[in-house]
Amino acid sequence: MAASQVRPRNENLPTGDPCVAFACPANLTVSFSTAVKKIVSMLGLLLALGQAQAGERPNILWIYLEDVSGWFGCYGDQVIKTPNIDRLAAGGIRFDRFYTPAGVCSATRSAIIVGAMQTSLGIHNHRSGRANFRGKNLGPVFDDIRLPKGVRTLPEMFRAAGYWTFNEGGKDDYNFKHDTNVMYDFLPSKRGWGPAALVAGKCWKGRKKGQPFFGQVQLGGGKLGRRAPKVIDSAKVPVPPYYPDIPLVREEISHHYDCLLKTDEQIGQIIAALKRDGLYENTLIFCFSDHGYKLHRHKQFLYEGGIQMPMMVAGPGVTAGQIRKDLISGIDIAPACLAAAGIEIPKHMEGTDFLAKGYTKQKFVVAARDRCDYTIERIRAVVTPQFKYLRNYLTDRPFMQPSYKDPWPVSKKFREMMAKGQMNETQLIFFGPKKEPEELYDLANDPHEIHNLANHPKFIKQLQHHRRLLDGWIKETSDQGLKTESDPGLLAVLKRWGAKCVNPEYDRVRHLLQAKKTE
Ligand SMILES: [Ca+2]
Predict the structure, then answer these.
(1) pTM listed for this prediction
(2) Å from CA of 311 to ligand 1 middle
(3) Contact assessment for residue 145 and residue 123, using Cβ atoms and an 8 Å cutoff
(4) Within 10 A of 508 (CB to CB), how many other CB atoms are there?
(5) How many of the other CB atoms lie within 10 Å of CB of 465?
(6) Three-class secondary structure of residue 234 per DSSP
(7) Count helices and strands in the chain by DSSP H and E runs
(8) How far is the CA of 222 from the centre of ligand 1 (A)?
(9) How far is the CA of 112 from the centre of ligand 1 (A)?
(10) How far does residue 308's CA lie from ligand 1's centre (Å)?
């Protein structure tokens, strides 16, 4: 990971400390006229600074896509047309190698909002750090996770710098204690799946004159369900080789396409609202997904379908029509936004401003999988320009552990096929009874990641290289995921999920739950 640096985007801004320059000269030999000249010159400087900031600080808008795989026209997809997304990409930069820090909501979102890996700050376990969970109060003992002293969320930083902040849709999902009253000037009272409040102009309405905004609009994306009308014929969608080609899989894939059509429509509405209110020209838009669509092997996991996501950036300072194929991580978004606003990038941020002039391409990015709901898992991924290396720590359990996906019809069918021996060799990589401790894939020649090269003698040097990258990163960032979760954390999961917690790690705290019940 590159070190954090301050890279002000606007190089024309005056530098130096005006207060020092403005101080009354101690040397009494300086003439009155010289002092007046200095004062006049300083006033001019302050005025110029004020004008530059008022006129040039852009609005920043995140169009945050929920569970959305990038099957868009601009990425070459042939099944659907996504004109609004394609136009946004063409008007700025389309990123072809954007990787999220995790394959699941809360871990990804926690990392992105602080610009550092979730594993560096102990905010990596999905839906941890909460006193209440879906209406269930977990009592006085729970994993009360706090950000380290001095670490703030991005909206707090923007707000402190004078920006107006909002979060349309309201989703945050952070694995640490936070206060939305401190983070946002505006939160729509009704949490929705579309951009209704933003499109109505409510999100930026309360700003002071000339006050720039930093806003997020959460789109339902892959979770739209019945809100996305059924359009796509399931017989016409492609099925990747790691799934059995069965009607239930086709239905999942075609439904995701339906969700993307609705998402494209919503993005069109957002752009139109910005234009209507005269904000489009001065708004830097980051449109990206938190992780891949919900089906197995994609969401929650670290194969390309889980973490290699769409991202496009367009707006002031960004030349249209660019395509970038270098590696970008989700943790790079926060520093890029701060730099665009001329705000200092704090030291805790591990990401890099990928829009900076003279930016050096990253040699690798990392993603992490840790506990999701009650399913304890630990996987790390290192992605380099050509390869992906996966380290599976918990080889005592299959990829298809019991999980929240189990009640779905497609999951039941998968398990039935697994039991009957109906999965082929390629499908067994994920649906088989065991997993390899290491996987190495040549992404350039094996985009589906189905030919594991980790045991191939020809690739031993690549394997060793990637091992070293991961070992170095673990040490450098003090990967918190290598420790077993805390007792209060495991206990909180037991309280939430009860009998679904079957992993041996829970045995350590199970008696605490029993003791609690008999109190
Ligand atoms: Ca999500």
Answers:
(1) 0.89
(2) 15
(3) yes
(4) 13
(5) 16
(6) helix
(7) 15, 14
(8) 8
(9) 13
(10) 14
**H or E segment to which residue 363 belongs:** none
71 CA distance to ligand 1 middle (Å): 16
Q: Strand 283-289 and strand 365-369: pairing? A: unpaired
Report the separation in Å between the CA atom of 51 and the middle of ligand 1, taken as the mean of its atom positions.
40
- What residues contact residue 98 under an 8 Å CB cut-off, 6+ apart? 288, 308, 309, 310, 311, 328, 329, 330
Neighbours of ion ligand 1 (CB under 5 A): 66-67, 105, 290
Q: Directed axis angle between helix 247-276 and helix 409-419, to 10°?
A: 150
β partners of residue 308: 99
For residue range 336-395, what is the model confidence (pLDDT) as tens digits?
Answer: 999 999 999 999 999 999 999 999 999 999 999 999 999 999 999 999 999 999 999 999
At 428, the amino acid letter reads: L
How many A from CA of 408 to the centre of ligand 1? Answer: 17
Beta bridge partner(s), residue 218: 64
So what's the pLDDT on residue 44? 42
Distance of CA 169 from the midpoint of ligand 1 (Å): 13
State in Å: Cα 414 to ligand 1 middle.
23
- Say if CB 89 and CB 312 are below 8 A apart: yes
**Confidence category of residue 53, pLDDT binned at 50, 70, 90:** very low
- For the chain, report the end-to-end CA distance as a whole number of angstroms: 49
- Distance (Å, whole) CA 513 – CA 493: 11
Q: The dihedral of CA 287, 70, 86, 312: what is its sign?
A: positive
Ligand 1 centroid to Cα of residue 75, in Å, is: 21
Residue type at position 187: L
Strand partners, 309: 98
Residue 429: name the closest of 221, 223, 244 by CA. 244
Place of tokens 């109190």: 519
CB atoms near residue 277 (< 10 Å): 13
- What is the whole-number distance in angstroms between the Cα of residue 216 and the centre of ligand 1? 14
What domains can you pick out in the chain, each with its CATH number? Answer: 55-133+141-362 (3.40.720.10), 379-504 (3.30.1120)
Q: In this structure, what are the phi and psi dihedrals at residue 482, rounded to the nearest 5 degrees?
A: -80, -15
Q: What dihedral angle (degrees, nearest 10) is formed by the CA atoms of 144, 147, 150, 155?
A: -120
Residues contacting 265, CB < 8 A, separation 6+: 84
Ligand 1 centroid, distance to 490 Cα (angstroms): 22
Tell me phi and psi for residue 97, to 5 degrees: -130, 55
Instruction: Return the DSSP state at 7.
Output: -
| Environment class of 18 (CB within 10 Å of its CB; exposed 0-12, middle 13-18, buried 19+) | middle
- Percent of the chain exceeding pLDDT 70 equals 88
For residues 451 and 438, what is the distance between their CA atoms, to the nearest angstrom?
12
* Overall size of the chain counted in residues: 519
Expressed in angstroms and rounded, the spacing between residue 8 Cα and the centre of ligand 1 is 31
Could you tell me the distance, in angstroms and rounded to a whole number, from the CA of residue 288 to the centre of ligand 1? 11
What are the structure tokens assigned to 68, written together?
Answer: 């959305």
